Queue: 4 jobs
Job 1
Amino acid sequence: MPVEYTDGRLDVADIRFLAVHSSQLAHQAAVTYAAAQAKEAAQVAEHIARVEARWFACASASAAAIAEYEGRGQGRRGRKPRPWRYHALHYQVEAVTQRQKRMQRGRPPKTEQPQDSIR
């Protein structure tokens, strides 16, 4: 907002407002706000769990999924992608070594090396 000082110069300054709820609806607004925060926190936690549950065979597939999560990929059903609006979510690609399950029954021989897969 433009501000004029006592010496006559004009400058642009930020103005901050403080809103104080002083009505009978203040308690209801606080409860509604807390419920909205809890709902949004649950949505973020569900998204993180869904992201962590997905495994990819190569780094390029995981990079494409990250682009989709961040809103740079293709949207669904012809719509624009919708990134998170209020939260900064950061993703990274990690290689995880996991032991493969044996297909034969019984105890493996001592000479058999365990098979690992990288995801």
Note: The first helix runs from residue 26 to 53.
Job 2
Amino acid sequence: MRGLPSRLLVITDRHQARHEIEAIADAAGQGGGRWLLLRDKDLDPAARHRLAARLAGIARRHGMHLSVSRDVDLAAEFGASVHLQSAAAVRAARQRLGAGAMIGVSAHGLGDVAAAAAAGADYVTLSPIFLTVSKPGYGPALGIAALGPAAGLGIPVVALGGVTADAIGPCLGAGAGGVAVMGEIMRSDNPGQTVGALLAACKAATADSDSASRMP
């Protein structure tokens, strides 16, 4: 099973963004971010296409892996991976993008995770782990306790929803392969610095896990 492009997935949302999405993506790359997901699903197709083209250029410049939400054709055009809303869409996406493409699926419970694994997805985002200001009223929160059972279903799990730097250690320690962050980065005055802090938390959590595994 392929690994994740990074422990940190940066998700775009222009409605929360304090800067232009392109500026945030560039700052994220400068801050060490290596995985970017174009969300902004409500953009009209032409505007989303233009944004995808600009983000693809930024991603190439920084060596970032670009993912696109939902639109398989858009992902194919820009050599990106795709993030789907349902495991039912995985087979068609795989046929369109090929065996080497990375395909993710949104999951909101263990049943969704199991379905994505069975469909051949490469990872899932599991949400909401915590309640989040990005989607008020969206829940209930699954909690960190959901990550271990989800990770045991044979597919990398990315924790999404209300994840802060302080929560990264517990999430990774519970079995998540990575974390996805949207609002905290989008709303940041200094998104590059925020991404750097989140990556530092990922690195510290990974080091702690490696140390614990070496203990007699």
Note: The chain has nine helices and eight strands.
Job 3
Amino acid sequence: MCHTLNTFIIMEHKDYIESLGFVLKKEKLTNLASDYKFNELILEDLDPFPGFYDHFHIPMSETEQKPRSIFAILKTMSLDNMDDFIRKTMKIKMEIPVKFDAVIGQLELQNTQVPCIRIYMDDYAALPDLIQLYSAHGVAFLPYKTVKPYSSLINVRKYFSIQAIAPFIYKDVDMADTYYFPVDKFMDWSKFEALSIAIRNNWEHKVYDAAQAGIYCKSGVIELVRIYDRQATVEHLTYLRERYNIEIARLR
């Protein structure tokens, strides 16, 4: 297995890591289905973990909460304004009695990169109030238009809290069934997607979703693979870590 020296030193000696970083993934988006008529362009993911639920027809129980993201498309604010966005979000969290998580990112929309806010909420009935609060704090949204279902590459910035459960295997403290392991290099999405498909097709355990991620440290970026798997074991994750690093090494 191959790791950069900085990655090896940082990840080997830390059981718990908190850091800013990113997640890069592909999801199927369309207009948010809502009884409320938004004037803003709000999209939802139809396939939040495309390697897990829909591609393998995993049934959902009534008590299971399917992870779901809402994407509010921005007119002016971008990743360059992340500090300002965080400050606005801090103020809004003091003004609305609903738990939510909001991070800034960008996604593909009609062959154009557009900025967005990715929103998780316990109660999406409060989404209109949340959007109105962001507008009141000077955040401008693109106006509503019809968007037919399409696949979009999405890049969001987020704060990571991850806990080691085995050497070079980390569990997300805030998100259930979500894991990370370091890889030796970043690659463009098309290569990552092709590599991920090849690994899945040559392994009997196929019900999981893979995305790219990274966390920032003093020496640069630690590249990660994010795995969503409700039946993950340390053995499964260790196998995936080894396979990804072997295949990535072959790309050189």
Note: The CA atoms of residues 96 and 130 lie 7 Å apart.
Job 4
Amino acid sequence: MTKPRIAVLMDENTSSGGNQYAMGKGYFEAVAAAGGLPFGVPYEHDILPEIIAISDGLLCPGGRFAYSDACYQGDWTSKSPHSDRLAIETKLIKGFLALDKPVLGICAGMQLLGCLHGAKMTPDLLATQQGALPHDESGRIHMVEVAEGSQLRGIVDAIQIQVNTFHREALVSESDEVLVSAKSPDGIIEAIELPKHRFAIGVQWHPEKLLDDKASRLLFSSFVRACAR
């Protein structure tokens, strides 16, 4: 049986000029371990139609870059650097979902997945979300509660799971198209899904860094299985 081909959007080093692609190996290792064939996608508009046509699924990774002002709640705006990634990722997500091909968004990938479907963000959760805990500290681990009846709950088969956390921005609202499927104890949105699609899930944490964890392995294996259909 042919393994599903998973397009993995590249990230870039926005903190030092954006002149290089920069990706953790864990994204590729996680997809491969789950039975998929991962390949990196650069920021080249001309190749996107073919990428969408030949790929079975899309993984959008973490990263730090400026989203459009429309993605933020109220009059908030981004504090992050500009990136060509935004336009590329927007086209990829829309293209894959138009064909109902699976999409997994991680950290920044989750945020854009939500914003493209009516959710809104904060550029700095500690500054805007009263009672929020630090979410951008290396080594920090916290629990999230997974919503009953969500697709994510069915995947991880647990009420609570332990996750890592590496983000300053966060989604602060849902929409008619976006279901919040997990939250941290301080109320920060930690996972979303698009119920109208067979697999369109975003998680705020980094499961590719937690491959010894059962819930992380289950998430990637469910994603790859969905891509094989």
Note: The two ends are 12 Å apart (CA to CA).
